[in-house]
Amino acid sequence: MANLIEITDFAAPELDVYARLTEVQLLNRQDLSEGRFIAESPKVINRALDAGYEPISFLAETRLVRGEAAEVIDRCGDIPVYTAELDVLANMIGYKLTRGMLCAMRRPPLPTVEEVCKGAKRIAVLEDVMNPTNVGAIFRSAAALGIDAVLLTPACSNPLYRRAIRVSMGTVFQVPWTYIGSELADWPHPGIDKLKEMGFATAAMALSDDSVSIREPSLMAEEKLAIILGTEGDGLSDGTICACDYTVRIPMSHGVDSLNVAAASAVAFWQLGSNL
Q1: Against a cut of 0.85, is the pTM above it?
Q2: pLDDT exceeds 90 at position 145
């Protein structure tokens, strides 16, 4: 049965996770076992629950508690459900809730690269993609277009930041992912070396004089392929491009020289992904 708690004290410490902690504080690098994240909207929260993530509490608009949010709340036993009217919640947390509901959840331990890539034929590697909106959009394309796993270099934005989760529509809970290395110095080496040891051919998505078209038959025929995408603006580093087996371009027209990394990922995944 739901443990409904009407909000009367906005300074209550149990509401810090929603109203006062930053994304960096929620991540809690000093003690990853105490890391938290916020999932937003019943649909996204359900996807997190389906993937085995552990809920801590809910923050919900009063009218939804026995309406649209009732099913997801019922899945979670007697954890606290803090409630208030929508305008009160928006004033408290500083933004309008998507579909009137948030859920605080525990961050699980990250799997190893080997665990994430076990059985994978097509993976995406994100190099220093720092915008959580782009990270979320890339995950949504990965889920839809045949990518088995996503690896991120240490400088990437975390996929469990609230905005990344929301933009991904919860697909960050469906596509296996982890970081490849824990320090900036771990990429491109030994990171790319590890990919090759696991049998992946590596394809750097970049404009270069010696780049091949994304339609290149030998590229598409690779049994295991890692599609590597670079940061907003600068793209992939020269060291990464030099270390990869292929440098790959997306043919363009009208004088356009490049796409946003999220848009480029969708094109690459459609052309090179598996199971489509």
Answers
A1: yes
A2: yes
What is the per-residue burial (b if ≥16 Cβ within 10 Å, else e) of 80-98?
bbbbbeeeebeebbeeebe
Provide, for the chain, the percentages of residues in helix, strand and coil under a 3-state DSSP scheme, each rounded to the nearest 5. Answer: 35, 20, 40
Nearest to 223 by CA among 244, 207, 199: 199
* pLDDT tens digits, 114-133: 999 999 999 999 999 999 99
Quick: pLDDT tens for 77-112.
999 999 888 777 777 777 766 667 899 999 999 999
Which residues does 168 contact at the CB level (< 8 Å), separation at least 6?
Answer: 135, 136, 137, 139, 140, 143, 159
Contacts (Cβ under 8 Å, ≥6 apart) of 228: 124, 125, 127, 202, 203, 204, 205, 236, 240, 244
User: How is residue 133 written in tokens?
Assistant: 């909106």
